[in-house]
Amino acid sequence: MAMKRPARARPTLATVARQAGVSAPTVSKVVNGREDVAPETRARILAALEQAGYQSRPPRRSPTEAGTVVEVVIDVLESAYMVEVLNGVLQFAAGADVEILLSVTGPAPGSLRSPERRAQRMLDEGRAGMIVVTSAFSEAQLHAFRRRRIPVVVIDPLNPPSADVVSVGAANWAGGKAATEHLLELGHRRIAYIGGTPAAECNQARLHGYMAALMAQGVPVDPRLIISGGSFRRESGITGLKALLQLDQRPTAVFAGSDTIALGVLSEAGRQGIRVPEDMSLIGFDGTTLGQESVPPLSSIAQPLEEMGRAALRALLRQALGEVLDSHRVELATQLVLRDSTAPPAA
Q1: Nearest to 194 by CA among 259, 123, 135, 131
Q2: In the prediction, which pLDDT does 65 show?
Q3: In the chain, what are the domains?
Q4: What does 247-277 look like in DSSP terms, one character per residue?
Q5: Of the candidates 197, 220, 219, 206, which has an alpha carbon nearest to the alpha carbon of residue 174?
Q6: pTM of the full predicted structure?
Q7: Please, are residues 233 and 261 in contact by the beta-carbon 8 Å criterion?
Q8: DSSP 8-state code for residue 226
Q9: pLDDT tens for residues 112-125?
Q10: Is 346 helix (H, G, I), strand (E, B) or coil?
Q11: What is the DSSP track for 46-65?
């Protein structure tokens, strides 16, 4: 009869300490998120922890218990986009008896501090997991949560996370293509694109959708009509339109990478005496309430923002219960919403 192999012993702090060439209390400091460890020593200990397969103690509470807490991390709560996503999270949380803890990191990328400490605190307090709606988390920072097996879901990430992190977003390429096709169908041929953060995956997808629609209609892509706004804020729309107005031949239509950028274009057009849509058509992306209230009301590609929030929390709770998800990427369809800011070009 074949003998069973003995189960592999769970690595201890002492085992990891010997491997890293440090003391067990120093390893304990890193595990508990203490900052009084030299960066080189910390990196060596983290590598040893991962190699040894060390796992901190599991949460004491089950995610099915009443009072389950999920942390939602955002940059700033000042955009209609963020408010609508949070509405979706809160709606689902109310029906699932989940408490939402909101955490604001600030607008600067990389502004999140002490991911090891945050991850260990979440583990100690038995939180079910974390939803991230921010650019502050880098791949290295997310590793602190993955190593402790804390479920994390990222909404509309700046860059695609690793394959084992669940992300939720919209069909940005298809939305960019639909926006441009609408303007082409109206008869526009000089169509500009004013984008947001250049490196953002969603911005690149919308830009590529715009280019695909032009090429499909045999319209040359003019690089002078593609403006990198630098961010998804109103200022990008203002500076972008100013740059386009310096061209010898102005565009007859503008596709803005977000509704907020579009509102910047709209305000600058008013200052320049340009009528929308009589002199220039304008379409945005997001479908937020801001576009409904603008003058004229803004045509836009609507993202299902509330459904994105609900889908993120739904996926997180399933992970917390130990379920295996069919896919680590949830991509929801966009919809073309026509209002008064688009029309055929002037004769």
Answers
A1: 259
A2: 46
A3: 22-52 (no CATH), 68-170+306-331 (3.40.50.2300), 172-304 (3.40.50.2300)
A4: SSS--SEEEESSHHHHHHHHHHHHHTT--TT
A5: 206
A6: 0.77
A7: yes
A8: E
A9: 557 778 888 888 88
A10: coil
A11: HHHHHHHT--PPPPSS-TTS
